[in-house]
Amino acid sequence: MSVRETGFTLLEVMVAILLMAVISLIAWRGLDSVTRADSHLQASTEQTEALLRVLNQLERDVDLRAGIELSEPVKPGVNDEPSTAPPALTVRSTEGRGFRLDVIRVAAAQEGQLQRVRWWLKGDTLYRAQGPARNRYPLPAPGSGVAVLSDVSDAALRYWDPEKGWRKLSGNRQENPAGIEISLTRQTPQGTEQYRQVLGPLE
Predict the structure, then answer these.
(1) What is the side-by-side strand order in the sheet with 191-199?
(2) 119/128 Cα distance (integer angstroms)
(3) Are 132 and 110 in contact (CB under 8 A)?
(4) pLDDT at 85
(5) What's the rounded Cα separation, in Å, for the pair 124 and 139?
(6) What is the pLDDT of residues 27-46, one digit of tens each?
(7) Cα dihedral value 51, 92, 86, 113, nearest 10
(8) DSSP 3-state assignment of 136?
(9) Lowest-confidence range among 74-83, 154-163, 193-202?
(10) What is the pLDDT of residue 172?
(11) Four-CA torsion 152, 98, 166, 58, nearest 10 degrees
(12) Of 123, 174, 170, nearest to 150 (Cα)?
């Protein structure tokens, strides 16, 4: 008397393999989607952190603008009259687009000394430069500068006029304005992003 052997038929095995292949494909696509989303989120976070570092540094430079008196060189001539100290904050428009911001600020960790700091846009990159600290005028000029923010397609600056409100520079130079507003436009993988930083009142 023969005993019937039990097991899977070839058709059943093929169906099982096909189902496993479909499940594996779905799982791979899901994992790939999660990986892409994580990379996208990480890139966006890094861009935001870089921007915040720049804006915080800019705000710090302005907050630390000169508020102490330094020994000044004297003008040759009658009574050796002291020369006038330069303005602590100067803003001006540059050719084409962008702006230039010059600050005379208290030097970090160097009590009683000041240094010149400059911000400007060149091409699609925002730069910052600072000069050596010194305890008397004239202060050394800022160095060559360091790129602090890339992919900046536009940068604009307005100053606060107590009588007329926010005003564009339009080729003008303003010394020690009551307030400044800086607008940045960046091109990122997520698209065009705009940022605005208001510093003031600057008393």
Answers:
(1) 165-168, 152-161, 180-188, 191-199
(2) 5
(3) no
(4) 75
(5) 29
(6) 887 777 777 766 766 777 78
(7) 10
(8) strand
(9) 74-83
(10) 74
(11) 60
(12) 123
Residue 170 Cα distances to 76, 123, 147, 196, angstroms: 37, 19, 25, 19
Q: What is the mean pLDDT of residues 51-75?
A: 76
Beta strands in 38-151 (DSSP E): 89-93, 99-106, 114-122, 125-130, 146-149
What is the amino acid identity at position 28?
W
Distances, alpha carbon 123 to alpha carbons 151, 183, 202, in Å? 9, 16, 29
> DSSP E strands: which ranges in the chain?
89-93, 99-106, 114-122, 125-130, 146-149, 152-161, 165-168, 173-175, 180-188, 191-199
Structure token digits, residue 145:
């500068």
The whole-angstrom separation of Cα 188 and Cα 175 is 34
**Can you read off the two tokens belonging to residue 22?**
């479909």
CB 139 within 8 A of CB 114: yes
Alpha-carbon distances, residue 111 vs 8, 56, 66, 93 (angstroms): 86, 22, 12, 32
Selected residue with higher pLDDT from 47 and 75: 47
Q: How far is CA 122 from CA 66, 152, 157, 185, 191, in A?
A: 26, 9, 15, 14, 21
Residues in the chain: 203
Residue type, 191: G
- Amino acid letter at 156? A
